[in-house]
Amino acid sequence: MKINLGIIGNGQHFKKNIKPVLIELDIYKQKNILTKKNIKKFYKNKYDIIYISNQTKFHGKTIIKCLENNFNVM
């Protein structure tokens, strides 16, 4: 089973703990990280799960945006 994972943010916890595991499992792709340049395209993609790793103060708004776009959020 292949999982299409979207990643919002590139925080220290993600870089140190999550990214190495995703690379090892061969499910990490740089293009799946939300940036200011690809924000409109990012939300049009079909992701199975969105991993939130942005600043804590933005978590609420980010989660709501993801749920409005019918994404599962982690």
Spatial sequence of strands, sheet with the most strands: 2-1-3
Q: Would you report the number of β strands?
A: 3
Helix content: 25-40%
Radius of gyration: 12 Å
Largest sheet: 3 strands, parallel
The coarse silhouette is globular
Percent strand: 5-15%
Task: Supply the number of helical segments.
Answer: 3
Mean pLDDT across residues: 85
Order of helices and strands: EHEHEH
- Give start-end ranges of low-pLDDT stretches: none
Structural class: alpha/beta
Structure at a glance:
The protein is an alpha/beta fold. The protein has helices at residues 12-24, 39-44, 59-68; strands at residues 5-8, 33-34, 49-52.
Q: What report would you give on this structure?
A:
There is one protein chain. Strands 2-1-3 form a three-stranded parallel sheet, with helices on one face. It is of the alpha/beta class and 74 residues long. The mean pLDDT is 85. The chain is globular, with a radius of gyration of 12 Å. It has helices spanning 12-24, 39-44, 59-68, and strands at 5-8, 33-34, 49-52. It is built from three helices and three strands, in the order βαβαβα.
SSE map:
Elements: E1 5-8, H1 12-24, E2 33-34, H2 39-44, E3 49-52, H3 59-68
Parallel strand pairs: 1-2, 1-3
What attributes characterize this protein structure?
globular, alpha/beta, 3-stranded parallel sheet, 74 residues
